[in-house]
Write a structure and sequence with these properties.
This protein is an alpha+beta fold. The protein has 3 helices and 5 strands.
Length: about 130
């Protein structure tokens, strides 16, 4: 789905997604992964959408970030999908689905939280 359609789906869920990247502010991603039982520490820094890494300066940092994103859940998409430009549309769809699924969960959790908060307020008013 294109970006505008994706944003509209989130909007219907009451979720507003925007980049938290402030100009010249650095964001750090921990892309540590287990490779055949070995812990590999990969720190990727992002500033103004430029990726750098002191721990893996010669690596494809975008590939590492995309792998992190599509493998966030139990299903490891990167085992079945090559992270190459030809697959970026599919990877984008996978990431969009993950965001939408989490937005639905956030919506449900928020409703449940406010229901619980209402129950607390009922109990408080009974005590008075």
């Amino acid at each position: 789905m294109d970006h505008l359609e994706f944003c509209n789906v989130l909007d219907t869920l009451g979720i507003n997604v925007k980049a938290n990247n402030l100009e010249n502010e650095e964001r750090i991603f921990d892309c540590s992964t287990d490779i055949f039982g070995t812990k590999v520490n990969k720190i990727i820094k992002q500033r103004n959408f430029i990726l750098t890494s002191e721990t893996n300066p010669d690596s494809n940092l975008l590939k590492m970030l995309l792998k992190k994103a599509i493998d966030l859940d139990e299903w490891k998409h990167s085992l079945y999908i090559d992270i190459v430009p030809d697959n970026y549309d599919l990877i984008k769809e996978i990431i969009q689905k993950k965001i939408i699924d989490r937005a639905i969960e956030i919506d449900e959790l928020t409703a449940i939280y406010f229901q619980l908060q209402y129950e607390f307020s009922k109990d408080d008013s009974k005590e008075k």
